Amino acid sequence: MNTILIIVNIAVLFLLMAGLFFMQKKHVSFSKRVFTALGLGIVFGLVLHLIYGVTSKVTTGSIDWFSIVADGYVKLLQMIVMPLVFISIVGAFTKLKLTKNIGKISFLVIGILLGTTAISAAIGIGSALGFGLDGIHLTAGEAENARNALLQEKVVTVKDMTIPQQILELLPSNPFQDLTGARPTSTIAVVIFAAFIGMAYLGVKRKNPESADFFAKIIDTLYTIIMRVVTLILRLTPYGILAIITRVTATSDYEAIVKLGKFVVASYVGLILIFIVHLLLLTFAKLNPLNYVKKALPTLTFAFTSRTSAGTLPLNIKSQTKDFGVSEGIANFAASFGLSIGQNGCAGMYPAMLAIMVAPAAGIDPTSLSFILTLILVVAISSFGVAGVGGGATFAALIVLSVMNLPIAIVGLLISVEPLIDMGRTALNVSGSMTAGILTARATGELEKDVYQQTTIAEA
User: Fold this and answer.
1) What keywords would UniProt list here (predicted)?
2) For the chain: N or C, fewer Cβ within 10 A?
3) Phi and psi of 326, rounded to 5°?
């Protein structure tokens, strides 16, 4: 009987996907298909949750098959991340788009990412204090105790790494290994390696123009092919979102969410306030924030459902270049650096909130100005090298709490609501990197304002 029900659920998913395909054939806009998939996934997931429950064999069996679509789509996106980053950065040099402003662009992108992360930490502190969050009264169940046992093993490694050592981890000692995404900081390492290749190209162009032109043609050809692959993968976005959000709503522990509701609400209040900061920064740059919200929503929706900044990279770059008019070089710098530096949600707000919650247990006054300023500084510096995949916030929290000599057990106590909060954090991370790209392009005169002001969203 269970097998029959699982087959029925799979058939329903295929019917919903067929409906999305029909919309595509009717040339319904990309954003409308994305939000339709989001709505259908929420409804379908809740129906599965209400009828079968979270732990039933029907639910787990169905979700196992749904994951072929959900995880398959994310894996395809991750497949193209490293080739896209490498070719795009090198291509920016061969097209002479970054030659004059490379130093200024790097400084602005990293500066904006770290600046907004510091602001995020301050907002996280304010939210935790405003809601009166206290980690002392949290209790651990079986899952939480298991999580804390794992964290105890990992924290040793975190404590053994000084901040200078963390910075050194950004440099590529083996670029071929980093092209496989083997390390959390692999993306930044690939950007640095690609930048060296680009600068070498500029040197060769002055001394041996023929060889440089031949190399540029190879890069341009590879770039064209890779962007075509990106386009093909992005067309699958509605189907991926449908499967991902169905899985999320069907398997969420709503009782735990209610139990830790105060922390969840405080987290999302903080996330919304930080997003408003992004809109204010765009407003100060004399750019319409409403246009940003409308055009960024499909990308932020995917980041929200998938919980992976790395997987969102192709959509991030597409939004910056096609929808906002950011030059390719800046878009790739901002999107790539944003994967491991200055993640506003995972590396900014979240560790700061946890530090405030556990400070009383360590005998520290969380309202002390010296403690708050130190915490903001530590959060900003420690935001280098946070992995752009689901769970990166855990490592960011471990680093911050360890540096501040605070207990780390609270990280494991929040495991039941971690996925729900991580969805919002990931969307905010991506928004932060897109905002950094747009503001940098605006400051360097490489923003096509006419494109930004258009109200239509470019098709994938």
Assistant:
1) Amino-acid transport, Membrane, Transmembrane, Transmembrane helix, Transport
2) N
3) -80, 140
Cα–Cα distance between 75 and 146 in angstroms, integer? 28
**Nearest CA among 80, 14, 96 for reference residue 318:** 80
**Do 426 and 316 contact (CB within 8 A), yes or no?**
no
Whole-number Å distance between alpha carbons of 219 and 229: 15
- What confidence tens digit (pLDDT) does each residue in 98-145 have? 556 777 888 899 899 999 999 999 999 999 999 888 765 555 444 444
The tokens describing 226, both together, are: 């890779």
What is the pLDDT confidence band of residue 87, given thresholds at 50, 70 and 90?
A: confident
Question: Per-residue confidence at 412, pLDDT binned at 50, 70, 90?
Answer: low
Residues in the chain: 460
Q: Which residues contact 399 (CB under 8 A, 6 or more apart)?
A: 158, 166, 351, 382
Which residue in 296, 298, 301 sits closest to 437, CA to CA?
296
CA-CA distances (angstroms) from residue 149 to 117, 248, 408?
29, 26, 11
Tell me the two tokens of residue 435.
Answer: 């905002």
Picking from 332, 434, 331, 342, the residue whose alpha carbon sits closest to that of residue 385 is: 342
Model confidence at 458, pLDDT cuts 50, 70, 90, reads low
**pLDDT at site 162:** 62
Residues 241-261: tens digit of each pLDDT = 899 889 888 887 777 677 678
Compute the average pLDDT of residues 331-356: 85
Contact yes or no for 314/80 (Cβ under 8 A): yes
Q: Is residue 429 within 8 Å of 309, Cβ to Cβ?
A: yes
pLDDT band at 383 (very low <50, low <70, confident <90, very high): confident
CB atoms under 10 Å from CB of 38, counted, come to 20
Question: How remote is the C-alpha of 291 from its chain's centroid?
Answer: 21
Beta-ladder partners of 447? 326
Directed axis angle between helix 186-207 and helix 209-234, to 10°? 150
